[in-house]
Amino acid sequence: SASARDWEVRLTTDEPTGLVPYTLRWAIRNARPGDRVVFNIQGTSLPATINLTSALPTIANITIDGTTQPSSDPNIKYKVIVRQSNCSCRTTTDAYGYSQYMFSVANSVTVTGLKFIIEVNCSTTNIFNQVTHVGVFRIGTLVNSVNITNNALQLNYNITPLISNAAIWRDERVNNCNINNNLIGIDDNLDQVGAKFGDGIYI
């Protein structure tokens, strides 16, 4: 079999097809089992922010390692921020039928050393908006071997949701799932940021 390789992210831009080289979406789209997505973003101050246009492809059998981003400043804990700010709101009456996550997670995935921000702006006049399920990671049913460690995850809601949203949502019968040392809903100084309701881990 072919040797594992690194797919380098050099750009903070994003586009929906994943065809532009050196974007995060391109790296995930091209990564094969055992590969790593690494970071080498130059020409911008750190932390560098990648602004997504939409949710990313399902990730499986790869490692995404934010600690690979070079930096001469040891005080910057998270050198790369991945932000999705255009999350749509649910407008149907199906209370549990709508969810939107930055990543859908399948087997054998490691994600470490990154900061993720989800921003949702819902109409306060439509109560169905308030039961939208939004988060960063959704780990699928029967998935095996997931490591989500040493990240920061933040949910920003303009209204208080009526049903709990989770930065990390784990479906049923997930095996070997390691989620630790993540800052959820707080910043590096342990101050609360983002949503004041529902951000956390659903298991």
Major sheet description: 6 strands, parallel
Widest sheet, order of strands: 1-2-4-7-10-13
Helix content: under 10%
Number of helices: 1
Oligomer: single chain
Number of strands: 15
The outline comes out as globular
Report on the structure:
With 203 residues, the chain is mainly β. It is built from one helix and 15 strands. The protein has one helix spanning 24-30; strands spanning 6-9, 36-39, 48-52, 63-65, 80-87, 99-105, 109-112, 115-120, 133-139, 144-149, 152-157, 168-170, 175-180, 183-184, 201-202. Strands 1-2-4-7-10-13 form a six-stranded parallel sheet, covered by helices on one side. Strands 3-5-8-11-14 form a five-stranded parallel sheet, with no helix packed on it. Strands 6-9-12-15 form a four-stranded parallel sheet, with no helix packed on it. β1 (6-9), α1 (24-30) and β2 form a beta-alpha-beta unit. The longest helix is centred in the first third of the chain and has 7 residues, at 24-30. It is globular. The mean pLDDT is 81.
